[in-house]
Amino acid sequence: MFDSHFFSRHKKSIENYRAWIDAGVEELLASYPDGPYAGDRPASLVDALRGEILPAAPVPTAELKSRLRTLIAKSIAVSHPRTAAHLHTPVLLPALGAEMIISALNQSMDSFDQAPAATVVEELICEQLCRLAGLPRPAAGTFTAGGSQSNYMGVLLARDYFLRKRWNWNAREKGLPAEAGHLRIFCSEAAHFSVEKAAIQLGLGLQSVVRIGVDSAFRMRPDHLKQQIETARAPGLAPFAVVATAGTTDFGSFDPINAISEIAREAGLWLHVDAAYGGALLLSEKHRSKLDGLNRADSISMDFHKAFFQPISCGAFLLSDKARFDLIRVHADYLNTEEREADGIPDLVTRSVLTTRRFEALKLWTSFQAVGREQFAAMIDRLASLAQFAASQIAALENFELLHQPEFGCVVFRYAGGRADGVNRAIAQNLFDSGRAVIGHTVVNGRACLKLTFCNPCTTEEQIRDLLRLIENCAAEEVLTAHA
Ligand SMILES: Cc1ncc(COP(=O)(O)O)c(C=O)c1O
User: How many angstroms is it from 40 CA to the middle of ligand 1?
Assistant: First the structure.
């Protein structure tokens, strides 16, 4: 009776499955936006998309398609060359093919009996990633929803490892000790805010995060790190982890991992490297050296929904010594008993903070197979050269200031004429509201700045010139309006 609703080998299911997939492809191709964005504000989107959410009976197919078309047309076109605000990538076609298989198979990565082949693929790909990062043999990993979850896991394991090793305290059994307020994590001023989020969620509070100064290229200063660790120790505080960033969100800058790892080792701190963005450079012959020292990390975040061109969500957390997953290991009678583990059955729930989990690894696996390492490397290198090209153009613009030489795919700059902060903010907002471009904005040393993030290797130099002309014109319009 319900066969036509579900994916199966049933004849009705097969017919209906094809109809849904065909309709999805058709609507997507018919309505995918020509520009970066339709320019709607939240209120007009509510008007356009409101409608009965849970009708008693199915809505007519034509009406459903029309609603889907509206939604598609009012989405951000991630593959448009003038969409350059965030680490928000256009997606590889093999990954889209894999997404269909992932959803239809609906394997759940928590236990082997829900995902046998998928478990093996995830393990193999994590092994490959650990090898790429140069982690030693007992390393292992798990797929995550992204950089925030991976950073959370890094801080969680670092905290509990420190408590066990240094304070002989079993946090898994007893929760946090009374002195937990003394714990300190170090990361640079340019590190991602998910470090603070992790500290909040892990009961350490914002007080636990010490931000370390950066140099003129927005890389963590090892001398500041050393000094801040000593300063924290003086009143009896307890440094336990350093988070180095390989590819900062705003600047794409790379902290000097080797120097940081030396300081971390001497001070007995866990080194987590947030390579959510810059980890992609592991594939690049040209830029790989920016990640030197990554093999010395205790744990690593890597995201594939950034510079590996995967659909959201797709990330990984890599751990140099897989035995440390014990810190979060829990057994459940219905899922992953100790007997199963003793029999060598890999129930991956023991490595994750989640239970039910999608088989995201398949899209990366399919992309690796279909594209190959050389093409991947060329596409990743292209992001870096686009950012360098944009920087060279910006440096030549009158009234604009370039804040850094890009190391990867981001360029931060600003209109530096009169009323600069207001003009910079207005440029990004006006371009978004008019749907002409989606560009980034940020604040550097208290000043409003603009940011271009190149995630699309198909973008051309000419398109970058056009985008910069648009930004210049928008600045001029804004200045004129302010004087009118
Ligand atoms: C360096 C870095 N780390 C972590 C994150 C968080 O990743 P996600 O948004 O996948 O949680 C980001 C996001 O941009 C990032 O740039």
Answer: 26
Q: Are 379 and 281 in contact (CB under 8 A)?
A: no
Counting from 1 in the atom list of ligand 1, the atom nearest the Cα of 275 is: 1
Kindly give the distance from the C-alpha atom of residue 32 to the centroid of ligand 1, in angstroms, as a whole number: 26
| Atom 7, ligand 1: residue with shortest CA distance | 147
Banded pLDDT at 480 (limits 50, 70, 90) = confident
Question: Ligand 1, closest atom to CA 303?
Answer: 10
- In this structure, the number of other CB atoms found within 10 A of the CB of residue 171 comes to 21
In 3D, which of 444, 448, 407, 406 has the Cα closest to residue 427? Answer: 448
pLDDT for the residue numbered 32? 97
Task: Map tokens 């082997």 to a residue.
Answer: 112
Q: Contact, 203 vs 180, CB < 8 A?
A: yes
Mutate to test the pocket of ligand 1, among 143, 220, 249, 281 (most ligand atoms within 8 A of CB): 249
How far apart CA 153 and CA 149 sit, in angstroms, is 6
Is the separation of the CB atoms in 384 and 406 below 8 Å? yes
Query: Mapping DSSP to helix (H, G, I), strand (E, B) and coil, where does residue 270 land?
Result: strand
| Residue 215 CB contacts under 8 Å (≥ 6 apart), including other chains | 221
Which atom of ligand 1 approaches the CA of 146 most closely? 10
Q: 19 by DSSP, 3-state: which? A: helix
In a mutational test of the pocket of ligand 1, which residue from 143, 194, 306 has the highest number of ligand atoms less than 8 Å from its CB? 194
Question: Closest Cα to residue 259, out of 213, 219, 311, 206?
Answer: 219
pLDDT tens digits, residue range 155-191?
A: 999 999 999 999 999 999 999 999 999 999 999 999 9
Which residues, judged by CB distance below 6 Å to any ligand atom, belong to the binding site of ligand 1? Answer: 87, 146-148, 151, 192, 194, 245, 247-249, 274, 276-277, 303, 315
Q: Concatenate the DSSP letters of all residues of 183-223 into one string.
A: EEEEEETTS-THHHHHHHHTT--GGGEEEEPB-TTS-B-HH
